[in-house]
TrEMBL record:
This is Ketol-acid reductoisomerase, mitochondrial. GO terms for molecular function: ketol-acid reductoisomerase activity; metal ion binding. Pathway: Amino-acid biosynthesis; L-valine biosynthesis; L-valine from pyruvate: step 2/4; Amino-acid biosynthesis; L-isoleucine biosynthesis; L-isoleucine from 2-oxobutanoate: step 2/4. The lineage of its organism: Eukaryota, Fungi, Dikarya, Ascomycota, Taphrinomycotina. One of its GO terms (cellular component) is mitochondrial matrix. InterPro entries: 6-PGluconate_DH-like_C_sf (IPR008927), 6PGD_dom2 (IPR013328), KARI (IPR013023), KARI_C (IPR000506), KARI_N (IPR013116), KetolA_reductoisomerase_fun (IPR016207), NAD(P)-bd_dom_sf (IPR036291). Substrate binds at S324. The keyword Coiled coil does not apply. Mg(2+) 2 binds at D262, E298, E302. It is found in: Mitochondrion.
Length: 404
């Protein structure tokens, strides 16, 4: 039985059951069935079209794409492939820590480069990097590395490039986790030297998750891209590095496509868009007389704690199947209104990303000497909004928190 069929059958089963309790019980049976059928039929559902060494051509809903997987890079192969390399992680923030620790745990030679005695320097020491051995000021780390992994914030990459560039000498590899610096070079002034491989591995998630998923034996999905290949090995190196930093499956992109999709995604569904939708719904409920507890539960808590995890696990149709017939009818009916309204905003957003406006704004804001204070102030305003203050109370009432 395919997943779709089992899901449809489960929905049908649910429809015939009147009581909420029975329905709930049935959902857990459904979840087990789906899990079982997914496992049992996994090879057919995810059948590779072509199997070449280390690469699979997968059918993504009718479009064929190449993918690479961690399974093809057992640890011995990884260590052997990079045995003559030293990975120099430059910057030890969200991505620097996640990627650096994962590569170190897999047995690769890794050094970290950050400015001495800053917040990152201290954090690196706490994480076991040793000054003078595996932890150095930026330029020294670059001189020790063969693969220079620029994980400074995008604004800091622009600011530090004039000092960094002379150390990126022939034979080294320049690695980014974003297409930003290179694609918006008219603004960043980052012109990679012509005699080095330039590659990108972009984990599609926060650096914190890059680390936690790896520790759980799972993996973040990442994209990779090659901007400049002088050795003929740039692609293979990028894929190996993607595995080294903790990726599970890896898909191919270009620097341009990565940066555009990433900036759209984070401003849209992943962060900005969802923040806007949460706020809009919360405000309407409050303006129309609903209490904060009700407005927050119906907007954020139920989404993050109950419904969205179901989408993550088995897809949207599974989440719909787990909800009432009333909810399903309305949700399907209202989808097109939301889609159409949001498509206009998203097209506007895409234009502003593509024409460099968003990069310009981000560089100007994040290069200001007081950008951390400005950001803290904005975040404080968000934190103080009624919706998030109400959320704090709601979270404090979760039984696992409220143990007295
Ligand atoms: N955050 C994420 O999860 C993701 C990020 N990326 C990309 O990864 C890259 C790294 O981003 P992220 O991990 O968020 O970076 P962070 O903002 O978390 O880290 C910034 C690092 O840069 C250092 N830094 C900042 N300013 C300077 C400066 N002027 N001189 C020297 N060092 C400086 C900081 O050191 P100090 O403590 O000394 O200030 C810190 O180590 C970016 O290209 C980003 O777009 C890609 C996917 C997801
Ligand atoms: C986490 C991630 O991939 C983002 C949202 O694009 C980012 O932090 O830049
Ligand atoms: Mg991003
Ligand atoms: Mg991203």
């Amino acid at each position: 039985m395919s997943f779709r069929n089992s899901s449809r059958m489960a929905m049908k089963a649910l429809r015939t059951i009147g009581s909420r309790r029975l329905a709930t019980r049935n959902i857990s049976v459904m979840s087990r069935n789906i899990a079982a059928s997914t496992t049992r039929f996994a090879p057919r559902m995810t059948a590779p079209m072509v199997q070449t060494r280390g690469m699979r051509v997968m059918d993504f809903a009718g479009t064929k794409e190449n993918v690479w997987e961690r399974n093809d890079w057992p640890r011995e192969k990884l260590v052997d492939y990079f045995k003559n390399d030293t990975l120099a992680i430059i910057g030890y923030g969200s991505q620097g820590h996640g990627q650096g620790l994962n590569a170190r745990d897999q047995g690769l030679n890794v050094v970290v480069g950050v400015r001495k005695d800053g917040a990152s320097w201290k954090q690196a020491i706490e994480d076991g990097w040793v000054p003078g051995k595996t932890l150095f000021p930026v330029e020294e780390a670059i001189s020790k590395g063969t693969i220079i992994m620029n994980l400074l914030s995008d604004a800091a990459q622009t600011e530090t490039w004039p000092k960094i560039a002379p150390h990126i000498t022939k034979g080294k590899t320049l690695y980014f986790s974003h297409g930003f610096s290179v694609i918006f070079k008219d603004q960043t002034n980052i012109h990679p030297p012509k005699d080095v491989d330039v590659i990108l591995v972009a984990p599609k998630g926060s650096g914190r998750t890059v680390r936690t998923l790896f520790k759980e034996g799972r993996g973040i999905n990442s994209s990779f891209a090659v901007y400049q290949d002088v050795t003929g090995k740039a692609q293979e190196k990028a894929i190996g590095l993607a595995v080294a930093v903790g990726s599970g499956f890896i898909y191919q992109t270009t620097f341009k496509k990565e940066v555009v999709s990433d900036l759209v995604g984070e401003r849209g569904c992943l962060m900005g868009g969802i923040n806007g939708l949460f706020l809009a719904q919360y405000q309407v409920l409050r303006e129309r007389g609903h209490s904060p507890a009700e407005a927050f539960n119906e907007t954020v808590e139920e989404a993050t704690q109950s419904l969205y995890p179901l989408i993550g696990k088995y897809g949207l149709d599974y989440m719909f199947a787990a909800c009432s017939t009333t909810a399903r009818r309305g949700a399907i009916d209202w989808t097109s209104r939301f889609r159409d309204a949001n498509k206009q905003v998203l097209n506007d957003l895409y234009d502003n990303v593509e024409n460099g406006n968003e990069a310009k704004r981000s560089l100007a804001y994040n290069s200001a000497p007081n950008y951390r204070e400005l950001y803290d102030k904005e975040l404080e305003e968000i934190r103080n909004l009624e919706i998030w203050r109400a959320g704090e109370t709601v979270r404090s009432l979760r039984p696992e928190v409220n143990k007295h």
